[in-house]
Specification:
alpha/beta; 21% strand
Length: 148
């Protein structure tokens, strides 16, 4: 359910990312989703935190180039997911704000670079078994950083 009055409409940053982890539907010139009208159901159903909550208009994914979601992750609990849409944006100010908010509240957070050759990083206060292996759906490793 969208927060009241929240619509991204047209080709969206969140839809681009949700559809393909940044590859299948993304226009190579960065003009949005080239398969928006025929996108898969997973794309149509995906709702980022901006759509679900009362975040500010300037925190829209197409403006911040960051998509934020929250999921329940087995063995970890609630995890804030931070997807970058353009390489390097995980080091940007909005990504830092989201990271600082989540970690200051004791939440786990996972950063997911747009470039598949780089691993995702899970920051967590939850002590995980030493033999725990995590991977994204695309097969990429998830590096775990225990925050103590």
């Amino acid at each position: 359910m969208h927060a009241q009055g929240r619509e991204l409409g047209g080709a969206t940053a969140a839809g681009d990312y949700a559809s393909s982890a940044g590859s299948v539907g993304r226009d190579p010139k960065g003009r949005g989703c080239r398969i928006y009208d025929t996108r898969p159901s997973g794309c149509r159903e995906f709702q980022c935190q901006w759509l679900k909550s009362g975040w500010a208009p300037d925190e829209r994914p197409d403006k911040t180039r960051i998509v934020v979601d929250c999921v329940e992750y087995p063995g970890v609990g609630q995890v804030v997911l931070v997807f970058e849409l353009i390489r390097g944006d995980l080091q940007g100010s909005f990504a830092r704000i989201v990271r600082d908010r989540a970690l200051s509240r004791g939440m786990s957070l996972m950063t997911i670079p747009v470039t598949p050759k780089f691993p995702a990083t899970l920051y967590t206060h939850v002590r995980l078994p030493s033999d725990s292996n995590f991977a994204l759906d695309d097969g990429r490793e998830i590096k775990v950083v225990y925050l103590g």
